[in-house]
Design a protein that fits this description.
3 helices; 5 strands; two-stranded antiparallel sheet; about 110 residues
C-alpha cells in the first residue's frame, strides 16, 4: 500500500458529471442485465454505525447479487475500513438490504 487510507479519501463531482456517468450506465448492457436497478438507498443511522467504529476511516462497498422475486438484483455490501485499508469485520457489521430503485425511487431527480 502506498499511502494510508484517510477519512477524506474520495472526491466530489458535479451533478452534470454524475449525470453523464449514470446515463452511460443506464444505456449499457450492464444496466439491462442488472434488471434496470438505478440506485440503492441506505439509511443514515446504518451508515453512521459503520463509520462510528473505532479506527474507521471510511467505507468500502462490495458489489454482489441478491435474489428477489426470482430476479438477481445488484447489491452493495458496505464495511468499515481502517487506515491500513483493512476491512473492519470484527464487529460483524456488514450493511446490505438497501432499498433498490425501482421500486423505491425518488419522485424526481436530476441524476437519471
Amino acid at each position: 500500500m502506498s499511502t494510508p487510507f484517510k477519512s477524506t479519501d474520495g472526491s466530489w463531482v458535479s451533478i452534470n458529471e454524475a449525470r453523464t456517468h449514470i446515463q452511460q450506465y443506464q444505456a449499457s448492457n450492464q444496466y439491462q442485465e442488472n434488471n434496470k436497478v438505478k440506485a440503492i438507498y441506505y439509511g443514515k443511522d446504518k451508515l453512521e454505525s459503520l463509520l462510528a467504529q473505532d479506527g474507521c476511516m471510511g467505507l468500502r462497498a462490495y458489489f454482489g447479487l441478491r435474489s428477489k422475486n426470482g430476479k438477481n438484483l445488484p447489491a452493495l455490501y458496505f464495511v468499515g475500513c481502517d487506515e491500513d485499508g483493512n476491512d473492519m469485520l470484527e464487529a460483524s457489521l456488514v450493511l446490505d438490504l438497501g432499498r433498490p430503485c425501482p421500486t423505491d425511487c425518488p419522485p424526481k431527480t436530476k441524476l437519471g
